[in-house]
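Progress against Task 2.4 (sequence-to-structure conversion) is shown through the following example record, which the project officer requested during the mid-term review.
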Amino acid sequence: MLKILLTRLRQGHRTLRFPDGPAPEMPDRFRGRPEIHAAKCPERCSECAEACPTGAIEIGAKARIDLGKCLFCSDCADACPEGAISYSRDYRLAVRARSDLIVEEGVAVRLEGELDRELKRLFGRSLKLRQVSAGGCNACESDVNVLNTVAWDIGRFGIQFVASPRHADGLLITGPVTRNMHLGLMKTYAAVPPPKIVIAVGGCAISGGPYIDHGETCGGAESVLPVDLYIPGCPPHPLTILDGLLRLLGRIKNGERPDAAP
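Structure tokens generated for the chain above:
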């Protein structure tokens, strides 16, 4: 036991200094919020829209990308001969309203707002969530689990995952909500005492992801439950999830942004 304690002391501070410190350096393969450079494609060739596997891109008077459907696969950027679509390093993706997931050329990004005063009073210091994998592939589930490790330590913010929905303040849902999981999800939601919140994590939970319009899925959590926070990605980075949760609780104000990694 003494050797374990000595080893831990030598390791020093291992928890990410977020949100007080600078954001960690994102991996080279990280793809953040997509950006549309309309001036590079005045003829609207639509090759990017045709390459998108989920129909997330709409080419009209203005080009639009639906982050709720986007898989962040970069097929659109690879298909565009003019480089009119690129992926930034911005990990801030979570929003309160489904309509705010639409990225449109010339329109400023709107981050999610806080819970209303009463819910913030109830959940601001202690938020207990029951995570439900409603048919997910385990990618989003894995990145949610990462938040419980010593490097992220989501518990220091008063946010914890609980085993029983009766002990929870809300649900964190991943997966497209398959037909086989529909009843289980509804029963879990019913078991959470009111007031309660619902958080949809990942493209599958928001829109169905690559399973959009599949007969064996319900097309995401919103098709069966009211959603209070949308966190897009396939899967979203743990920092994206943490940032969204903290903004929801008012720990990070909407106008604030910790220093982004280069």
